[in-house]
Design goal:
single chain, 762 residues, Rossmann fold, ten-stranded mixed β-sheet, three-stranded parallel β-sheet, 31% helix, 11% strand
Amino acid sequence: MSTVATLPLRAPALTGYKPFWAKRFGPAPYLPMSRAEMEALGWDSCDVVIVTGDAYVDHPSFGMAVIGRVLEAQGFRVGIIAQPDWHSSEPFKALGRPNLFWGVTAGNMDSLINRYTADRKIRSDDAYTPGDVAGKRPDRAAIVYSQRCREAYKDVPILLGGIEGSLRRIAHYDYWSDTVRRSIVVDSKCDLLLYGNAERALVEIAHRLARREPVGQITDVRGTAFVRRTAAPGWREIDSTEVDRPGRVDALSSPYQTTAERAAAQGSHCDATKTEAAGADPTSAAAQKGLEKPIALIRPDHARSVIRLPSYEQVRRDPVLYAHANRVLHLETNPGNARALVQAHGEGRSARDVWINPPPVPLTSAEMDHIFDLPYARNPHPRYADERGRHDGATRIPAWEMIRFSVNIMRGCFGGCTFCSITEHEGRIIQSRSEDSIVREVEAMRDKVQGFTGVVSDLGGPTANMYRLGCRDPAIEAVCRKPSCVYPGICPNLRTDHDPLIRVYRRVRQLPGVKKVLIGSGLRYDLAVRSPAYVKELVQHHVGGYLKIAPEHTEQGPLSKMMKPGIGDYERFRQLFDRFSAEAGKQQYLIPYFIAAHPGTSDQDMLQLALWLKRNGFRADQVQAFYPSPMATATTMYHTGVNPLKGVHRDGRGERVDTVKGERRRRLHKAFLRWHDPANWPLLRQALKDMGRHDLIGSGKHHLIPAWQPAGSPAYQSPRRKNSSPAASPRKLQKQELPARTQPAPGRILTQHTGLPPRRST
């Protein structure tokens, strides 16, 4: 049974609306990208035109396809303008004037992360573009596309969505310009921003616009943000310092206490009549406890309360207030108890508020099934095919090929990793599909997708093994404000039963025509070890020789800033992995992911990680450096040097975070991950000397790097005769010391990274 079905939140079902009149046209084979396609469908116009920074792939892993098909199912005629030339507004007029609104998205990835590496260098490829060609979308594509849409048809409402807009809904630190930028609602001049999973909000707004309701009056939809120039009547405004006060250490209240229990703990009552009957001033007990209000007023009606964050001008100038605003934002992300947020932008006559409504109500399993059962073609639009209808060479879209034979079974993540954007975008409540819906998609893929060989490349989502996991008690879930359900340990109220997922795996791999089901999504190994039966099923039937896993680090300092489990959980999982692999008579390997230069990581931490890698025989092929994405908690640490997880204070009681900035130090941290690469030895050699660790330089097994450079490498330095063995010439030593590129020893594997952010957005 889905956990979201019992949440104390109500919302109209996606299928509960009366279809728009244009439903008579029926579903299109592909959403049209030209006037000729519209005419072939019998359309004279589009009700909605979606502008996207990705090539149009009609597959449920691509946002524009999901949004387009969901609106089509409601009866609206939807057209697609994919990767338009943004230098003028003419390409945005290709499908004519939309009857209802523009839908604008930068694409499945943030346009800046898509174009620039973590070191701010321009990428040479774009996996969401035919031919893997870079440069087909502008920087800050959501803003640029919105401006061009406004130029094309000034009076048409603009609804902005996608991860680029979602992660910029308040004033945010921008890594690429090293500044704090305004909310994207202000910069894009959109009418509404839809953040998070937008289907529910989009369907409601589309029907209201179809009823000719002015877009400026649509201010009550959850999961939306907009600009407001006047105060909202009937709303109680709360200063954010009442929610989380900078400079004061507050005891954390248990999310499992009732309001009455909290009141009793503070010497008060929930019922003000009891206090008055006792002849006491209702505010006296609270005042003695240092509170400004009686406990009965501390939890007002959430539906009519809005929290005022520090203004854009304040957070731009003051890192402490920036950290405070980010902390409050993350406290207000649970749909069950989140309140609206407001943040002022500008001063004087130019002042206006960015208003952010609470997050959307999560989708039920029935609604998830409805979305994924829509008639997707599961292929790129025919525009991208060659004359033979093939998608290869210059028409090849790498991102589609990566997920071509995969199936998304759930959404959301309750891990709360500080460097990750999934929780901020998809939410922490898991939204799962039914078994039948998953099986239907696999069967459709088997029967309709050209090139299917019987191998399902993935059954997963943001994480591989959170399917149908959630809080045991919906009442607790509705009031919980914990940023993670699995850190610092797994919450006792979290269900960790993997049996539903095991049933899905077994049912899919038993389908006729399915030879193998692989798991390609990132695995939460701390959850997996709670279910040895799941690990056995996974290892013996669903690993194709290699399994990705993300310990991220070995040292507690950086792990505590990431909100990741200790390396002990990884070791327990590795033991189960090796045991079940041996039982099946298989030689299989783990591929661990590690992050360099994460906030809170010292040079000593990276040294210890390098020593762990060498002891365990790991040689990283490519490494991933920390990438400060907007709105992430780790990005706040990077920008402010403050740890918002421990509270934000001005008086020294808060925790300062060592942030890894500057090209040399970032290169050093990456070099520790690639300790085996001779090109890194000069940098590591000097760093070890500076750290007083000369004992790690030499040719022994206990040394990290040699004291010499091999022939043919930069800064070649021949080893001294006394350090060379009689039978080892410099050329032989070179062969022995260079990183292996062939098959690893049993139980070990080269860590391989593609350079593209992984699917879990971390």
